[in-house]
Amino acid sequence: MNKLIQNEMLKLLARKRLLIITAIVAILVAMFTYAQYKETQSQRERLGTMEWQSLLQQQIIDSQNRLGSSRISDEWRQQLQVSIKQSQYYLDNNINPSEPGAPTFVRMFIENSSDLFIPLLIMIIASDLVSSEHSLGSIKLLLTRPVQRWKILLSKYVVLLLSTSLIVLVTAALAYVISGAVFGYHGWTAPVITGFTVEGSNLNTSGVKLMDQWEFLLMEMGLVWFVAVVVGTLSFMLSVLIRSTAAGMGVMLAALISGMILSNMVSSWASAKYFFMVNLKLTSYLSGAAPPIEGMTLFSSVSVLFVWLVAALVVSFTVFSRQDVY
Amino acid sequence: MIHLHTKRVRYITIFASIVCLFWLFCLGWAVQDYYSAASPIEIKQKEPEKAVDTGKFSLVALGDSLTRGTGDESGKGYVGLVTDDLKERFGKKISVHNLGVSGAVSSELKNQMKQKEIKRQLGEADAIMLTIGGNDLFQGGQTLIDIETAGIEDIQEKYLQNLKDVFTTIRSVNNQATVYMIGLYNPFIELEDNETTSSIVREWNFQTEDLASSFSDIVFVPTYDIFQLSVNDYLYTDKFHPNKEGYKLIAKRISPLIKWEEEKK
């Protein structure tokens, strides 16, 4: 088994996929860092001040003005109301929600990339783990070895888990190193408020906790990693089911994007919460944003994702052990 | 195939396994912490830093959609125009806090003034501009439909009470800065019943000015006359908010009044 895993790892490293992903992340992080830098500058220019209190106050006012518009949807209105209350809470307690520095940038970056960007990176690896063996024809060589099929598949899956872990780590590390060059490397111990609960447009602050940013960041990373594993497993299943890598990727991509769209408009369709796509934004439970459908909790989302994960594994292993290979 | 050292592959595998376990731990921690009972930690109420004069001129604008600049396609509104003018005249950067919220009525402004941060910004201000009351009076045109039943007097009384509270709050945190209270105009002056609506607006303005005069350094800036003769030239297509030209005229009223007297501080 160990040998098999080593063998799969060797194949992955030889194809330099991880390097390509690292390069993609590095380029994008550099771009975002620059964009963020520019935005802060223009904000300062506009308001003529650098105090975060004034900036946050201005954000609240801007959101309040958006609330006044009659064209916005009810869901959006609720989310705005929640975020206004949250900003106000930060302001009232004199805590800067985005202390300048690399750790804050990493936090923002991870939060925003958790439901699409990181899953996409994982897909680059996951979606052709099995199907590429078909297209290259090497599957026959692999299966003629005196090893049970499930072991072969398991070794591939383990490699997927390992590379997912590496990708999440690399993304965070690159975001830290690159953005730190501009924003500075400090801010690990900045206070972060968590434990908000959202009920409709109300924000319940009775259970709030204060923690250091590094603790908050690690928790978020754990959640992001879990989301990445689930998406990876689903693409892995598709890679077993569909022999064409492109088709598998296309299906997965469609699912992910539909999740983004659905999250913005499903609030009245309660049973949509059983789709894995609308449950991907786990980090918003920690930071206290309104979930896409009322009644969704961290536990329910993790459970839904876990069920999808197990189902995908069962399907993958059953199909792979019975599949005809020609 | 490229030859990779088996040793390197092994190291990477071992490292990745450790990372994998670490993330698993973080996941468990996150879920556990999320559901662990919130031990009510008192958030230390840090007192906001005392208002320091940064040597910059600080302009604060309060109020409703006029302060926001609704109707000006360039998005500046009178606040932006005044800012531009002051920048030119003072030859220095000035800091602007536009706290206007579209649709705000006087009671909402009163509540907004209770916020700590707003008070802090007001405390630092060198000049304060204010538009309020338009939404109280017109209620989106509702008042005009039934002038009789709308109970203008009640509305006006409440408005004046709220405005008094607003002025009091401003003076309690800042007794130096001049406040520019911008008066109402009658956007419906060319519609029927214009005599009634005009007299209501005039009375409204008079009461506002009267109240303003009971505080020190509150300047009432009239705008009624600007829109009196050719209202449609200066109104936006919604026939309620000023357009770019309208805002320019309002800004021209206020801007020359604002002086930077550093020695005052």
Automatic annotation (TrEMBL), chain A:
Annotated Gene Ontology cellular components are: plasma membrane
- Point out the signal peptide segment: none
InterPro entries documented for this protein: MFS_trans_sf (IPR036259)
- Pfam families to which the protein is assigned, alphabetical: ABC2_membrane_2
Give the molecular function GO annotations.
ABC-type transporter activity
Keywords in UniProt for this one?
Answer: Membrane, Transmembrane, Transmembrane helix
Source species, domain of life: Bacteria
Q: What are the TM regions of this chain, as residue ranges? A: 18-37, 116-136, 157-178, 223-242, 254-276, 296-320
Return the protein name. Answer: ABC transporter permease
